[in-house]
Amino acid sequence: MSRGSGGYDRHITIFSPEGRLYQVEYAFKAVKTSGLSAVAVRGADCVCFVTQRKIPDKLVDPTSVTSIHKITRSIGMLVTGMQGDSRSLVQKARAEAAEFRFKYGYEIPPDFLARILADQAQVYTQHAYMRPLGVVPIIVGIDEEKGPQLFKVDPAGYYVGYKATASGAKDQEAINWLEKRHKGTDGGLSALTYTDAVESAISALQHVLAEDLKATDIEVGVVSMADKGAFKVLSDAEVEEHLRACKSLLLARGALAQKTLADLEIGALRSLSTSTDLKAVLAEKIPAEQERLKALKKECGAAALGTVTVEQAIGGMRGIPGMLWETSLLDAEEGIRFRGHSIPDLQKHLPAAKSGGQPLPEGLLWLLLTGDLPSKDQAAAVTEMLRKRSTLPAHISAVLEAMPPTTHPMTQFATAILALQSHSQFASAYESGIHKTKYWEPIYEDSMDLIAKLPAVAALIYRRCYQNGKNIDPHPTLDWSANLAHMMGYGSDEGALEMMRLYQTIHADHEGGNVSAHATHLVGSALSDPYLSFVAGMTGLAGPLHGLANQEVLRWLTNVREQLGDNPTKEQLTDFVWATLKSGKVVPGFGHAVLRKTDPRYTSQREFAQKHMPDYPLFRLVSQLYEVVPDVLTQTGKVKNPWPNVDAHSGVLLQYYGITEDKFYTVLFGVSRSLGVLSQGIWSRALGLPIERPKSLTMDAVRAIAMENHAA
């Protein structure tokens, strides 16, 4: 019962003082919570609909599970919502259609059938001994006079004809996609051929579900004048053919879009420089980027980037475009791109410490700040610049020594960063009245100072927590990330140095929406200096749903080895994964909020392991799970992305080189993430981005707006 509804949700026949029937609203919610989404499209001479097909249990006969029903020879009905109500409504529709044909001698028109079902739904909102049906039927058919027809009936008894529509869990997202895809509906939807209509409906469903669909994942019903107006459900083979066509079209569009995106991102910061002075090169870039932002606001300021659904607003704002982040962009299919460059690109083109080795994070820092792939001399200049800034003030060690060595490493990391804040140049400059157009300069100085000192901070924490406080001085010739490994005590192993370079590169940035990046951006937008904003991001990174994921993976792998040994069979692993899922837990290291393919950061680590540790038992286990887990997760029907992410592998590399203290892993993650979030922080101030201030709503306000939009 809704709090504050005053008992009005108990009685279907009584309006609340606000003019609402809560039971009817609950019926709409029942359709949403059914978990299925459906899309329907009307073409020039056909109508089709497509819906998810979910098999609740492996023992269920899949042929007995359907949401699509044939009502007459030329009318089909797709019902989304409660299955019991669906069956009752289908029987009602068939009975009405049969009675109509008996009375009048010809088939019932689709619009007449829709009106009958709408009338019944409306009657169910008026009687105390009834409840509204928790279903939304979509009716398609061919009218002898009007041609292809498409109708949708809602639980309130409202029905109307459509050119395209959707129902179920993600209906509004699908409708938005269809509207954008077929802008100017008469020239778009009404002219669609049979093939185009089917593939448009499938593409819409694929888009909102954000996953690659198989023929067994969906049902497709069509009625076409070319088939003499006969309704039919497509076979799996026919569906597979349409899916292949959709994929080919998507790849073609994706290639064009990716080319355009790469041109925009790589070409945006146009002037290439041979200077090795990073700040000077950055200063040259800023005026052009400021003008580009002004032009963007002037030309596109009123354009919509998308719509926000209630589900998104209460679901962590997932997928809502709402911030500018220049340093990287995450593509669901391709993975992360740093200034337009993929991880394989970076491994090929960024300078390395040795020929054929892993890229230097210093080169990535140059790329993130300038948009240019650096030369070897430019990367070396960044290494030298960071080395000169890397010495820790004496009080940092004293601050950490005041804390018990058992304090979590991330707590110590955040504390040390806050202790460094007393040296902030931006804080001093702001107090002195620096002009806002110059904000970026002391922000740059603070950011470079902080990035330079983080390896020493991390190593100091590692040695005092796990190596009896015996510190190791930095090496005078090693690069930024290699010195981190050296000061931790692993500098004698060239493989460990290369691993650390790879680790610090691939974890550096992952666009702006994740917790650590967004928190840093949010706090920085209030003109907090980089020390304060970065520590906000790090306390977010310390959360178990963000930066602690690789610890969870490692502990789960350890549990697998303890129970199954070092050489489990595929069948044993499959059973273990199923047991994990059935116990209510997730399989750590698999799936991602945005990605829909194997994380390229995972792939880069896997390739490194194949070269450096092919026989390491933990790596062999991870490789076996790579062959097992995606299939199991796919069979559940609940996972959009069953593929491994970066966390599935990073702990394995660290373990191999002796860094076995998993509580420390998030500190290493944080050191790397500084490259991306602090680079963006510099650009945020250079571009004059404002303080972040989104709008919040109460549940009552959300409901009121949602119902108003639905009524409209």
Topology:
Elements (H helix, E strand, L loop, with lengths): L21 H11 L4 E6 L3 E7 L15 E3 L4 E7 L1 H22 L5 H14 L11 E9 L3 E7 L5 E3 L2 E5 L2 H11 L3 H4 L5 H16 L8 E7 L5 E4 L2 H33 L9 H23 L9 H5 L13 E4 L3 E4 L4 H7 L11 H10 L5 H13 L5 H8 L7 H12 L4 H7 L8 H27 L13 H11 L3 H13 L8 H11 L4 H12 L7 H16 L5 H13 L17 H13 L4 H20 L10 H10 L8 H22 L12 H13 L1
Antiparallel strand pairs: 1-2, 1-8, 2-9, 3-4, 4-5, 5-6, 6-7, 9-10, 11-12
Helix pairs in contact: 4-6, 6-7, 11-12, 11-26, 12-16, 13-14, 13-16, 14-16, 14-20, 15-16, 16-17, 16-26, 17-18, 18-23, 18-26, 19-20, 19-26, 20-26, 21-25, 22-24, 23-25
Distance between the termini: 26 Å
Query: Strands across the major sheet, in which order?
Result: 8-1-2-9-10
Number of folding domains?
3
Compute the number of helices.
27
CATH top level of the largest domain? Mainly Alpha
| Range of strand content | 5-15%
Shape verdict: elongated
Helix content: 40-55%
Q: What does the largest sheet look like?
A: 5 strands, antiparallel
Radius of gyration (Å): 29 Å
